[in-house]
Design brief:
8 helices, SDR, NAD(P)-bd_dom_sf, SDR family oxidoreductase, 261 residues, SDR_fam, 46% helix, alpha/beta
Length: 261
């Protein structure tokens, strides 16, 4: 099985911490040269130090706020002009929790721009060089809510579903060029976002954090939360030559929690 990413360049969004950083770490171990993108420059500096460079890879970081469309376009254009990007990992923090009936139009618009439009902008910027190389892997880190909506995540459920449909359509259009587009759907994974969700739920229900975690874990057949590295392992596999015939999929990494086949 060919799992080597030597000679490949990966652009990993939201990679200063959590799942994004775990993916970058895994891709570097497999030989890829990684370009880390996130808003916090200090965290990026710390993150890049954790990446393996056994094959003499030169990893890079760029601090960028994807809400600034013009700055994002300029940065990606400069990166692609210098080298082909073979792997794009679209990953950004999810919208705030809350019932969909309470969501404002502004919340939907902001989430749509942050997730779907940013993904689209980045993908359009890199696919030209991917076509030239005959190799491309686009991975979108979304949520199991594209299978079954999650409670109290109204805006997130809506936008994640839109991203999944966009990705499937993009997979259909790019498959003939050796480019695959797949979605990884993390379940409850130990990240800062999970910690925030647990804390908010505990506060609203008047419970201890341990009680909230126990309730959540009881719904997971694996009887534990996932680790960022476990999500990263799936994403990294989808980036390899071995996964060339896996295209247009949405794969849960959730310990079996999602109640659909």
């Amino acid at each position: 099985m060919n799992l080597s990413l030597e000679g490949r360049t990966a652009l990993v969004c939201g990679s200063s911490q959590g799942i994004g950083l775990a993916i970058a770490e895994e891709l570097a171990l497999m030989g890829a040269e990684c370009i880390l993108l996130a808003r916090n420059e200090a965290r990026l500096t710390e993150a890049v130090r954790r990446l393996d460079s056994t094959l003499q890879q030169v990893h890079r970081t760029y601090a960028i706020d994807f809400n600034d469309a013009a700055a994002t376009d300029a940065l990606i254009a400069s990166i692609v002009a210098g080298r082909p990007v073979h792997i794009l990992v679209n990953n950004s923090g999810g919208p705030a929790a809350g019932p969909v009936v309470d969501a404002t139009e502004e919340q939907f618009i902001q989430a749509f721009q942050q997730h779907l439009l940013t993904n689209h902008r980045l993908t359009k910027a890199v696919i030209g060089r991917m076509k030239e190389e005959g190799y491309g892997r686009i991975i979108n880190i979304i949520s199991t809510s594209v299978k079954i909506p999650l409670k109290n995540l109204g805006v997130s459920n809506t936008i994640r579903g839109a991203v999944a449909s966009w990705a499937k359509t993009m997979a259909n259009e790019l498959g003939a060029f050796g480019i695959t587009v797949n979605n990884v759907l993390p379940g409850a994974t130990r990240t800062q976002r999970l910690e925030a969700i647990v804390g908010n739920t505990a506060q609203k229900k008047g419970l201890d954090r341990e009680e909230v975690e126990a309730e959540m874990i009881a719904e997971i057949p694996a009887r534990r939360f996932g680790e960022a590295a476990e999500v990263a392992a799936m994403a990294a596999f989808l980036c390899t030559p071995a996964a060339a015939y896996v295209n247009g999929t949405s794969i849960p990494v959730d310990g079996g929690r999602t109640g659909s086949i």
